């Protein structure tokens, strides 16, 4: 799929074994090309653009492309970049093409996965928190949303004071220009030492994700979200 002046185009390729020299298993792949006509990326920065914390923006976190890379790799794919200063940048993503019949959806009711409770979701990206909200509502939770850690702390404190506490809190690890989960959880635990806070991120190798309990979190869920992962962690924390 190519996004740019040429429009949108789908293609299926078999890069492995075809001379493309890509670190992929033999098979069919969907090729997605995202191209712009911007200022481009300096050559000396190209080897580092997928590194966490690397950014050329004053208020950037350096997790945007690192997260993209992690998600693609978790789906057994690969991502490359070509850029020329003054001309633009093109990202090429390879994802395995799935053939055959779709598996039937699991019956959540049959597995007795529905639960009741209140959940607070903090994520600076609206589409991400919306998706998580819909998944939690499907399980049975009433969900409140916010895009910043400081507001999440205020919402939690207010709910506790009104005796309508949140049973579970999902916090994004990093919020560019705002308070992320790492700092927010400390403030939240000062309000309620029994708070159950789950850290979320698309970059699963971050030290906080790997050793989440040391930072005060009760659980961890990686992006992109999967219903089975949510159900599993909620079962563990609610008993």
Structure report:
The protein is α/β, with parallel strands linked by helices. The chain folds into two domains: 95 residues, Histidine kinase-like ATPase, C-terminal domain (Heat Shock Protein 90, 2-Layer Sandwich); 122 residues, Rossmann fold. It is built from six helices and ten strands; from the N terminus they run E-E-E-H-E-E-E-H-E-H-E-H-E-H-E-H. The strands form two sheets. Strands 1, 2, 3, 4 and 5 form a five-stranded mixed β-sheet that branches. The chain has a five-stranded parallel β-sheet with strand order 7-6-8-9-10, sandwiched between helices. Helix 3 runs parallel beside helix 4. It is globular, with a radius of gyration of 20 Å. The chain starts with a strand and ends with a helix.
Briefly summarize what is shown:
This protein is α/β, with parallel strands linked by helices. It has helices at residues 64-74, 126-139, 149-161, 181-191, 207-210, 227-238, and strands spanning 2-3, 12-13, 29-35, 78-84, 88-96, 117-122, 141-146, 168-172, 197-201, 219-222. Strands 1, 2, 3, 4 and 5 form a five-stranded mixed beta sheet that branches. A five-stranded parallel beta sheet has the order 7-6-8-9-10, with helices on both faces.
Q: Count structural domains.
A: 2
Overall geometric form: globular
CATH fold assignment of the largest domain: Rossmann fold
Q: Please provide the count of β strands.
A: 10
**Share of helix, binned:** 25-40%
Return the average pLDDT rounded to an integer. 83
CATH architecture of the largest domain: 3-Layer(aba) Sandwich
Distance between the termini: 45 Å
Number of helices: 6
Largest sheet: 5 strands, mixed
Portion of residues in beta strands equals 15-25%
Structural class assignment: alpha/beta
Identify the CATH class of the largest domain: Alpha Beta
Instruction: Determine the oligomeric state from the structure.
Output: single chain
What is the helix/strand order? EEEHEEEHEHEHEHEH
Radius of gyration: 20 Å
